[in-house]
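Entry type: protein chain
Record version: 2
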Amino acid sequence: MVPEGRQAETQVTLDFGAIRKVLVVDDSRLQRRILVASLKKWGFEVLEADTGEAAIDLCANRPPDLVLSDWVMPGMSGLEFCRAFRGLVTEQYSYFILLTSKSEKQEVAKGLDAGADDFLIKPLEADELRARISAGARILDMQRELSEKNRLIESALNELKLAHDAIDKDLMQARKIQESLVPELTGQFGKSRVSLLLKPCGHIGGDLVGMFSPGVNRLGFYSIDVSGHGITSAMMTARLGGYLSSTHFDQNVAMERRFNRFYALLPPEEVAALLNSRLIADAGIEEYFTMVYAIVDLRNGHLKMVQAGHPHPLLLRQDGRSEFLGEGGLPIGLLSDAAFHQTETYMQPGDKLLLHSDGFTECRLSDGSMLDDDGLRRMAADCLTENVGSEFLDDMFWRLKQLMSPGDGMEDDVSAVFFEYNGP
């Protein structure tokens, strides 16, 4: 039968967890022998040193889990050794117990300042030593468990950074592809001109603007805002850019080839209905988009326009008057039987038309309010006094950024089309 004391001792050994290797530092050979005998009996791997200098050499390559060091030693004292030990660069923490006959509070404070974790007063009691080592083992177990969790977190963060960098690189390339959908920001059509603005709030956006002219005096332009943000919306704009191509008229759904000789612009309401039917027919697509699409006969300024849930275009008359056009309408891709209505008006030489996304009117300003339609009207009037063409749109965007709170990023994409009619 195993004695009761031996059973308790075996049970204590199981509590030594993280502590495997112990370094005993004492200039007294007898004291070292007593400590080493007990430590080996409890199952520890034990190293010995008779001076602080020798102990530092032993710890240089692979520090022990626990250090038991006498305070008073010739040469380097236990206190000095503790400071030097804590100065070593190691990957894990070691528990340090100072053995001393000093019990004054000031001396204990010096030891704590030097880096000691605990103290044992000589002469040592085996049960107390074992209990202090068990307490240190619990602390080391928690520390090393925390270190391992931190290592796993750091590893996961590194993996996330690599993934983020890869995504960021792909998004930068996607932005270049999206920018290719709007190859030119300004187009001259006779005396008239179209200017475009496209500012995504992130790497890529869900807004799209464009223009095309199948022949002299015939011009079409549009402003589109796809629901949502990010990659899905950007993919939708790429698709719509193909549907309304400015270079491949045979793929442009807003045109119709006639007499095998030229392309004609279809009425805007027909174009909206055609885009709606295509989007509804595509299974799995939940996105929709708002749009203003307009065509103009440059000979007489006759403008035809469809507004599908997009903000009202702002017509700026040459005489200083201004008005918002359109009646609203449903976005494209929501309902299969949606009806789209056409708005018509005549523009006079010197009149200008601004199509814009809600990134303008719903922009949150520094005072918490939104720019809204009246603010847009005032801003456009101010910008017109000094700018034309693309400079007008750049000034609009600059003023919008100035009205936002400093440091705030854009919450939505900002885009616009600026048409200046100057007669036939």
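Comment: The first strand starts at residue 21 and ends at 25.
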